[in-house]
Every structure is written in C-alpha cells, then in structure tokens.
Design goal:
The chain starts with 6 loop residues before the first helix and ends with a helix. Helices cover about 75% and strands about 0% of the residues. Helix 1 crosses helix 3, helix 4 packs antiparallel against helix 11 and helix 5 packs across helix 6. By secondary structure, it is an all-alpha fold. It has one domain.
C-alpha cells in the first residue's frame, strides 16, 4: 500500500535537516583553523560509513551490489568532492556567503541535465540560470580588492553536487537508495583515507569530539533529507531548503561574530528567486508530462 503524503511532516524534517547542516558547517569552519580540511572530512566520512552500514544492514550482500558500478563510483567522487571543496571555501568565507553560493546547485542541474539526461531547457529556465549566476557574481564581487577566491571553491562544490544529483536522477529507476547511500559513503571514505597520510596531524581530544560531532550531524542531516522526501514531493520541499541561510547567518553571528553584508543579501535574493522559479518550471513540466 503506497504511503500517503504528509507535507507538513516532510517540511518539518527538511527544515530540521537545514539546521543540522548549518551546525555541521559552522563546526567545520571552526576546526579548519587547527586541522587539515581533508582530515576533518575523513573523520566525518568514517562516521558516515558506519551510519550508512547500519541503515542498509542486510544478510544478503548481493543486494548491495549496484547495477552500474561506474555511475555509483562517479557519484561518490562527486559527493566527496563537493564536501571537501565546500569546507575549503567556508574556511575563508562567512558561512552565510558559502551557503548562498551552494544554492546554485539547482541551476547547474538545469545545465547538466541537457547533455546527461537529454532534457530540453527553455528560454525561461535559461534566463533563471543566468540570473542565478549573476547572484553568485554579486556575492563574490570580482573587482579590485573585492574578489574572494574562496568563492571558486563554493562554485566547484556546487557543480560537484549538481552532477551527483543528476547521476542520482539517472540511476533512480535501477538502483535502491540504500545501495546508493552505502556506495557514496564507502567511495568517499576510500578517497579520503588515501589522501590522509599526506596531511595527518594527531587531533587533540576536543578536536576528536568536534570532528565526530560533524560526522554525526552531517549523517543525521542526510537521513533527515531522505525521510523528508518520503513524506513530501521534492517540489514542495525545495523552497524550504533555503532556510539554511537563516541558520548559517545565525551560526556565523553566534560563533564568529560576523553578519553578511548588503551585497551578499542582494546576491542571495537573486539566487533564491531564480532557484524558486526553476522549481516552479519543474512543476509545470511535470504537470504537462502527465497530461
């Protein structure tokens, strides 16, 4: 029997996920002052593997073997790339700024879906994508004395995440979500463990605690996102993902005593508006496809 939608529950879970992610991002930024980014990500992924293994536990290991090993590996590389690049970016930027730039992922999905999924993108969605990119330019402020190179890490992180989501959509009809979750965790952990010896420093007890906190929070956030999409369609949940900017701003103020300036807010407004319009166009296309 199909599960009935419960939009309010899905929205509550989605907002909870944004809160958890903001807490994880703030902690990661704090730790970058004393620990290598790769090491922070590696400990986070070790927790992620344990979490994913617990969620997908099954006596039949063959059920965890994917239909497309290549796509699963590429997706895993994209997700770990997105995570590491985001932390490199947030190390030198305000959390709110890094979060704003991460919101361009839905717009980049529009671009990537053309060659990878064969989708047709109309002029209005292209206009929304261009507007979103303008918002990123405003946030990064390229110009004499104003450009923040760390913004490039944010854009690259968003591109990796967008590619991971496009691959997820491509595999949706053939792969179990549990299989994808486990492969994403394992691939990322392997990559980071290979890189770890080149940067490793032995963490102090408080650093161990905070890195484990990041792992638990980010894994919990992923679980909340999955649960939210069980109760409500992605088109309903998408606008509420932008509440992460509120929590990121609050975390930046409480932990680092920083607030986004007016240009960051202007750029955020443009990116969010273009993202919401893209979601609207997806709804319209979905309705037309049903007819």
């Amino acid at each position: 029997m199909p599960q009935a939608d419960d939009p309010l529950r899905g929205i509550a879970l989605s907002v909870a996920a944004t809160t958890v992610f903001a807490a994880s991002d703030a902690t990661a930024k704090y730790l970058t002052a004393s620990m290598p980014v790769v090491e922070i990500a590696c400990i986070r992924y070790i927790v992620f593997v344990a979490f994913a293994g617990w969620l997908v536990r099954t006596p039949d290991l063959r059920a965890l073997w994917p239909r497309s090993t290549t796509l699963q590996v590429v997706r895993g590389l994209c997700v770990v790339g997105s995570a590491v690049l985001f932390v490199f970016g947030v190390r030198s930027m305000q959390i709110a700024q890094a979060s704003v730039i991460s919101f361009i992922s839905p717009l980049l999905i529009t671009v990537l879906s053309i060659p990878l999924l064969g989708e047709v993108v109309g002029a209005r969605r292209w206009a929304a994508t261009a507007a979103g990119m303008l918002g990123v330019v405003i946030v990064a402020r390229p110009g004499p004395g104003g450009f923040q190179p760390a913004a490039l890490f944010g854009v690259a992180s968003s591109a990796c995440w967008a590619l991971a989501l496009v691959i997820t959509r491509k595999m949706a009809g053939t792969e179990r979500p549990a299989t994808t979750l486990l492969w994403t965790a394992v691939v990322g952990a392997i990559v980071l463990l290979v890189m770890l010896p080149f940067v490793f420093v032995w963490p102090r007890p408080w650093q161990w605690g905070l890195t484990l906190f990041i792992g638990v929070m980010s894994s919990t956030g992923q679980w909340l996102v999955v649960q939210a999409h069980r109760w409500a369609p992605a088109s309903v949940l998408a606008p509420f993902s932008y509440t992460q900017l509120l929590w990121a701003t609050l975390a930046g103020w409480l932990v680092f005593d920083t607030l986004p300036d007016e240009w960051t807010l202007v750029g955020a407004a443009i990116i969010i508006a273009s993202g919401l319009y893209t979601v609207h166009r997806e709804r319209v296309r979905a309705r037309e496809a049903v007819r």
